[in-house]
Recover the amino acids of this structure.
């Protein structure tokens, strides 16, 4: 399984399927525990990620690490990747400004994301931010109204979305956590659900408990 992922990462490292290939320094494929029942899917690499080839290692990534740690988790407990594998930025002023990936870039990069998720086979996908939720849950996903809820997924038993740590950083002030508490709570829900689904899948026999529906 992780052999399959290694081969995919190798193939993706030279991808030229969309315009983001022109300016990238590294394709940021993803990393972590490919056997984890929980996969986090972000928007796309920023400057630090583009420079290092690793997902979520800049300022937003540090906040994500903190939110994982507040749940007793580390990056090695989950698998972390992105909707697009190359940095999306506006270069028109000479100084690159990160931007959301365009629909055609998101569509092109599904050629890597879809087999990546299929190779991992997670129980739960946690979409980090609106672009990821629009890609993996529903085109018109409303992040503030619909974060923290269960949705059906083609690629996992369920998908949940949460606020992007970069958004939280922009919204934080002395009197406002910017939504950080929601990020921590959504990670908790995603992890608990993944563990519950894992236990159910590996349990000796199905217990005759009343089914609670995931898709409330
Ligand atoms: N933001 C993302 O969405 N992904 C990263 O890898 C880094 C920042
Ligand atoms: Fe290929 Fe995805 Fe990079 Fe576009 S963003 S060049 S599709 S790896």
């Amino acid at each position: 399984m992780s052999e399959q992922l290694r081969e995919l990462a190798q193939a993706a490292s030279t991808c030229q399927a969309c315009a983001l290939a022109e300016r990238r320094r590294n394709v940021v494929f993803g990393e972590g525990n490919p056997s984890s029942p929980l996969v986090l899917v972000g928007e796309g690499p920023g400057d630090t990620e583009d420079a290092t080839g690793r997902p979520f290692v800049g300022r937003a990534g540090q906040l994500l690490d903190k939110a994982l740690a507040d749940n007793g988790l580390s990056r090695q407990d989950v698998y972390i990747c992105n909707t697009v594998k190359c940095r999306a930025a506006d270069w028109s002023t000479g100084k690159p400004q990160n931007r959301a990936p365009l629909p055609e870039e998101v569509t092109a990069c599904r050629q890597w994301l879809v087999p990546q998720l299929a190779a991992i086979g997670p129980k739960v996908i946690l979409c980090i931010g609106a672009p990821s939720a629009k890609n993996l849950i529903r085109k018109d996903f409303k992040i503030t109204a619909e974060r923290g809820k269960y949705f059906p997924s083609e690629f996992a038993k369920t998908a949940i979305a949460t606020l992007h740590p970069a958004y939280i950083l922009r919204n934080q002030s002395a009197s406002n956590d910017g939504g950080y508490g929601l990020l921590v709570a959504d990670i908790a829900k995603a992890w608990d659900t993944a563990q519950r689904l894992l236990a159910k899948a590996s349990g000796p026999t199905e217990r005759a408990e009343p089914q609670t529906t995931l898709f409330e």
Observations:
- The chain has one domain: 3-213.
